[in-house]
Amino acid sequence: MMSSIVVLGVVLVVAILYLIFRVSSLVSVAKGQKEDRVGSSNGVHATLFIVFMITSLTAFFWYSYTHFDSYNLPVASEHGQRTDTLFWITMAVTVIAFTIISIIMFVFLYKYQHQEGRKATFLPDNHYLELAWTIIPAIVLAVLIFTGLRTWNDITAPASKEAEVIELVAQQFAWTARYPGKDNVLGGYNFKLIDAVNEFGLDLSDNKTYDDFKALELHLPAGREVLLKIRAKDVLHSVFLPHFRVKMDAVPGMPTQFKFIATKTTQEMRDETGNQAFNYEMACTEICGKGHFSMRFPVVVDSPEDYERWKLSQEAWLKQNPDYMKNVPAGLKESAMIKAGLPVEAGVTVQATAVGSN
Amino acid sequence: MATTVHAPQDVHHHDDHSHEHEHHEGNFWTNYVFSQDHKVIAKQFLITGIFWALLGGILSVIFRLQLGFPGMNLEWLKPVLGGWISSDGKLDPEFYLALVTMHGTIMVFFVLTAGLSGTFSNFLIPLQIGARDMASGFMNMLSYWFFFLSSVIMFTSLFLSTGPAGGGWTVYPPLSALPQAIQGSGLGMTLWLVAMALFIVSTLLGGINYITTIINMRTRGMSFTRMPLTIWAFFFTAIIGLLSFPVLFSAALLLIFDRSFGTSFYLSDIYIAGEALSNVGGSPILFQHLFWFLGHPEVYIVLLPALGLSSEIIATNSRKPIFGYKAMIGSMLFIAILSFVVWAHHMFVTGMNPFLGSIFMLLTLIIAVPSAVKIFNYVTTLWRGNIRFTPGMLFSIGLVSFFLTGGITGIFLGNSAIDIQLHDTYFVVAHFHLVMGSASFFGMMAGVYHWFPKMFGRMMDNKLGYIHFWITFIGVYLVFFPMHYIGIAGFPRRYYSFTNFETFSGFTDLNMLVSIAAILTLAAQFIFLFNFFYSIFRGRLAPANPWNSTTLEWTTPRNPQHGNWPGEIPAVYRWPYDYSKPGAKDDFIPQNIPYSETPESNFPNENEMIKLETSNGNAIVVDSGKH
């Protein structure tokens, strides 16, 4: 019932509009051909362009100024401060250029609107003018390029040896993090070893894997360089840490990385933003399927001491999944149990029964 | 079988003034369907393009409903979308991705490549260079029908139960290669690839024709430096297309192999749906390189024709020569060349070697220089003009405005350090929708309004054109300008909803504004549709040269028949921008008027050319008599 009324209303409105159109075009036919080269509305458009320019530029500056805090994400990394500076310098340069050119264009449209009897100026070219506006943008761009290049090179330079290495693994539609454990080295992996439990595909013949632990939150130490090792299991994903200005794709078959230094702990950021519920987050920014929009991974930045304490409190993956001891080569079982923090006696019995059954 | 015999209905609508086309050669099929006439083929491209534009626009409004009004009950779309609307009235997240994908594919390829370039290259090249038709009418016809076939296949894919392709218009593997990863990568993706392969064939057939025609079939006197900028733009566009589309073809072919024949060009180390795949050694990054090797030139394939059309329209309606004709050609040439060496700026954060990133950043920012020159030249063309705001002119001004607003944000994105944060956010969406999408769309609209009289022999209604322009112009800004803020705040694109993140929980107001503006903008396009189809049949009859323009197409009869000019093809004696020449009687001198007839306005060097005119002209007349 309701929908048929809506349809009827729409039809009626369209019919009325059509009638208005017909009447007005018949009236204009009755008036006869106009001799003027331009319609009577020419001046209206010229004025509308000025109105448009003033309104839109005002709205632009007003919104940009009053809502600054709602679109400007606080920054919490060292390189992020540099890219933000670059961003705002570029913004200043381009907004100035944009505003000037826009105003000139719309003013010209108004000023040089058609006037009967006036003739346009025949101006095919002017080499000095053209040279000027080729060279000036070229110089401005060159400056932007070189500052950008320097920043880019620093960001992508190799990480230092002391960097804290953390692995991020993406899959449809979740993230997991792997920390290297006490030996500070991530163990090897192979995608063919992945199963429902061994989601990292840990290679248990590598003794570096035994103390690696899995985390369902990304913990970062403030003030220390972190090297994210990024990989994907199924399709492309992308690590996006908006507050740290970090983004790097996760590519199946091609591990990627990103190094950075977080500068503010979660608590410091809560105090700074005045929002005690604030949390850092990680998102996916490469289309990866149905759940792309829901790949949230919580991020916590700890003070270095809290970070070490948190690491110590974590259990090695192997300790959580002692069944996988069976995949550890016989010669490495004992060191595996020690590194994983499994009670050694239990381990020995496992070994003994295994030997006995043979 | 045939029990009813239809008598051939030879209904000639003897409209009051349409007695010009007296003799009909060929039948309905050869005249209007499998026509080899470039004007008919242009109209076929245009109408197919309009169909696709409408569909692409509707798809975007559906996903804008989801983004602007996340809780909205979409039950009422069930009759159309069926199972893609869940039982509680929500849009299926996977179908949302399919909508985004198809919107991009349709708009970039089917509307702004085929609909824009296909229409105006076909229509204007022979008419503006003074040729009877394209070099190969048959290939030209094939070009349309390959496009038509491609359209049918792409359209069919919308109705599959597993949905059309859903991995984004860039169809990055492995997502697009593995049906386990997303439903759309099943049959939908297969049809996508087949349709695109046919589309590329169509583009190549068209492009070869455009280039050949421009090089070989110019009328006498039409030297390269007397060609209108439209023709230069189509020329560069066709060359770019010819060099870059085959790369997409090979990328698509390798993807087909990976999908169907077990190869590993793009696949390696994949564990999905509970099993490890056997593919090793491939690289998903390879696909991205191949894709963007077309994908970036594609931006200019879409944009250059629009810039060419608007150059012509702005000069005509400012009653001034385009400022810096040679600089305009030079900029386009420079853009065309550079467009091949900037592709990896789409890939700064894919894990590609950072050194490559530096190189591509350098090259990318260089391309801003010729683009800036073009904007300055447009603005200077307006300076001290005598501007008439025809609908075509309004849309051209809109193009320049969008090109400026959207182009300037390219300086952010081309800078790899800044791009880290902005990549794949709404900032990118705002950028390319303004600079490429809306600017080219406005160029296309400008072209339709401006050349409609030549296409259909009738005028479109100006008032409806004005209303269409103002709603669309303001609407487009309201849709895309707010996205800059949303992007700076880090909102990633292709998100079904933003409810899962605290960081991205704001801007519900702006998102709603964008969606409302999108709906109004789409609605305004129906004004155009009405105006377009109504005017084809009932519009005011067009005068021979409604805009007092200088180029050759306006020397043809109101409804040019096959062959364009009833008699001899006019010769060309001057460049196309003799508007408001000092001393001239009128404020325009068409290209086919010799200098000998305009002694009052000739510059000294032009007076010297009068002698050449007669001698040269005669010599070539003899030559052309051999044909």
Any overview of this molecule?
- The complex is a heterodimer of chains A (358) and B (627).
- Chain A is of the alpha+beta class and 358 residues long.
- Chain A folds into two domains: 44-111 and 129-157, no CATH class; 164-351, Cupredoxins -  blue copper proteins (Immunoglobulin-like, Sandwich), CATH 2.60.40.
- Chain A contains ten helices and ten strands.
- Chain A has a five-stranded mixed β-sheet, with no helix packed on it. A five-stranded mixed β-sheet of chain A has the order 4-10-9-6-7.
- In chain A, strand 1 (164-171) and strand 2 form a beta hairpin.
- The termini of chain A are far apart.
- Chain B has 627 residues and is mainly α.
- Chain B has two domains: 34-538, Up-down Bundle (Cytochrome C Oxidase, Chain A), CATH 1.20.210.10; 556-625, no CATH class.
- Chain B has helices spanning 28-33, 38-68, 78-81, 93-129, 137-157, 187-216, 229-260, 284-318, 325-338, 354-366, 368-382, 391-408, 410-413, 416-422, 426-456, 462-488, 508-538, 604-625, and strands at 271-272, 275-276.
- Chain B has a two-stranded antiparallel sheet with strand order 1-2.
- In chain B, strand 1 and strand 2 (275-276) form a beta hairpin.
- The longest helix of chain B is centred in the N-terminal third of the chain and has 37 residues, at 93-129.
- The two termini of chain B are 48 Å apart.
- The model of chain B is unreliable at 1-23 and 617-627 (pLDDT under 50).
- The interface between A and B is large, with 114 and 119 residues.
